[in-house]
Design brief:
2 copies of one chain form a homodimer. Chain A is an alpha/beta fold. Chain A has a single domain, classed as TIM Barrel. Helices cover 48% and strands 11% of the residues of chain A. In chain A, strands 1-4-5-6-7-8-9 form a 7-stranded parallel β-sheet. A two-stranded antiparallel ribbon of chain A has the order 2-3. The first copy, chain A, is globular. The relative contact order of chain A is 0.14. Chains A and B meet through α10, α12 and α15 of A and α9, α11 and α14 of B.
């Protein structure tokens, strides 16, 4: 499937010659060539123009010895076609003009039909696969239902998720209806990406860490389980819940062949909590790339030591690479992981 | 010492007639009588005027059956006298005009002399004690060194702590010097509060949860240990690290008679991790107070069940009470905790 199949092998807990690495947001603002394009197009224009998606997706792959590419897109894109009206502010943060907070507003949300609405993404995936020509595998992705719901309800990013939690705690029926609609969308969205050529899919639950375990169990788990159950099983599923060390066992229960870890929890402790039954992905603090080379090396050694000789570790940052990180440190990291993990 | 000494007994893991409760930020904007005063004075004016401090500290105590009062102040106040120039923006978020990012800037920070610089706080503590007249105990507090350092370095709140971590990872000597200066200040600050009449002290490490365990061990633990070692032992110490479930064992190692918990980790699991060697404080999601009464009751029952019959549980929110919470829900919570936990 791919000449370099380290990443896919690790997803399946098979032996590899060295630890594969890719970086969340590797197609992003820390790259000069990305900023050059971004200066000419809006973020949304970039997302919706296949030639630009292909270019930006491949930029980091050309520069670094990465073991996977990830399609350039934004988790909010499909929401537009469900009737959510948003724009990206200057720093690419989303702002939703018509937050959804009542049962009526949830009921009004339209059904998403990927082939009709987001053909540009499917075309982009096919083009990237063609360009990659089997060099490394391509990852597709989606936001998780909670994370999308919180954007829709709050109207953007949030500190305390007051509206989201108020809906959960006061109108659970409305909440569950919203989650059902989002899960329906995500299943179609990801299965179409897989059909178009995505060789793995990652689900980003960026904000679910704001919930206590009981809330996750009641308001998230059933929906998240259905999502993983109905995903195309022909490719590996990565489940990444950010800031959710306390939810790790529930995240595993929800599903995923690979569990993504942020940098907070120690990788060995996390993997033990997962009973070593899944692969793991992570977990360097993205801010470590601001450190000295000595510091970066110390952290990489620590993570590789915690991963040990077990099959099924994909190296990654614990969150997206930050826009002001020195590029040479990203390159140093990627080469270092390969070098230090040679079997 | 106090007619209602449930709180102090629980701090010391002694039996109580029912579970004591207080709320972080209980003197705050969710109270109409607080907003009335705030509309007439700036936040800083309120902090620096003993009569206003007394009034605002006592407002929630008059309204609710709380088991402790906490002096009204802000963790940044002492920094002003060390040469840090800040103001509070409209929503009371701090903005620092001269962030400290170099060794020279750290060296320039002045020594804090509480009796000289913050006599208004000591006066306020004495006045509140007099007014309380032994009804319930009074808590003093301080920010933890990491949290204060991150404000000073970033220039306010932060999302990724890039400058703070860059200093740690690239100039560890500068970092440790800053931490030493802050710990010196905090020791004097809290010991003076205790001498003035604070019957317990809480250390708020609001942002330390952004660190991985190795960073905490290297950059925080030695300083945090010294802090607890040099604090006046005549009153209990509460150590609250927010968003730091993954650091819990290290937080305990640093010190504290009571470990504060946010709402993420389950209280029983946390207490077990602490080997039941400390008391625990927490841990209702502040957003639960937006829920229905049924929802609030379910959560309170769950927390009390997890605390079990063990001595040493102080009920609290897992973070400050939010400004738009319905007051009647706060009252409902306080009475419910007492009622459901009667021994």
């Amino acid at each position: 499937m791919a000449r370099n199949d380290r990443f896919l092998k690790a997803c399946r807990k098979e032996p590899v010659d060295c630890t594969p690495i890719w970086m969340m947001r590797q197609a992003g603002r820390y790259l000069k060539e990305y900023r050059d394009i971004r200066s000419k197009y809006s973020f949304i224009e970039m997302c919706k123009t296949p030639e630009l998606v292909v270019e930006v997706t491949l930029q980091p792959v050309r520069r670094f010895e990465l073991d996977a590419a990830i399609i350039f897109a934004d988790i909010l894109l499909p929401l537009e076609y469900m009737g959510i009206d948003f724009e990206f502010t200057k720093d690419d943060g989303p702002q939703i003009k018509n937050p959804v907070r009542t049962k009526k507003e949830v009921e009004k949300m339209r059904k998403f039909v990927i082939e009709e609405h987001m053909d540009y993404l499917l075309t982009s995936i096919k083009l990237v696969r063609k360009e990659l020509n089997g060099k490394i595998p391509l990852i597709g992705f989606s936001g998780a239902p909670f994370t999308l719901a919180s954007y829709i309800i709050e109207g953007g990013g949030s500190k305390n998720y007051i509206y989201t939690k108020t809906m959960m705690y006061k109108e659970p029926d409305t909440w569950h209806l919203l989650m059902e609609k989002l899960v329906d969308m995500i299943i179609d969205y990801l299965n179409a990406q897989i059909k178009a050529g995505a060789q793995a899919v990652q689900i980003f639950d960026s904000w679910v860490g704001c919930l206590c375990t009981s809330d996750y169990r009641e308001f998230i788990l059933p929906h998240q389980k259905r999502l993983f159950k109905e995903l195309d099983r022909s490719v590996p599923h990565i489940h990444f819940a950010f800031g959710a060390s306390h939810l790790l066992k529930l995240v595993k229960e929800a599903g995923g062949d690979v569990i993504g870890l942020d940098w907070r929890i120690d990788l060995d402790e996390a993997w033990k909590l997962l009973n070593y039954e899944t692969a793991v992905q992570g977990n360097l603090d993205p801010a470590a790339l601001y450190g000295s080379k000595e510091y970066i090396k110390k952290r990489v050694e620590d993570i590789l030591r915690r991963a040990g000789n077990r099959n099924g570790h994909i190296f990654n940052l614990g969150h997206g690479i930050l826009p002001t990180v020195p590029v040479e440190n990203a390159e140093y990291l990627i080469n270092l992981v390969h070098e230090l993990s040679k079997r």
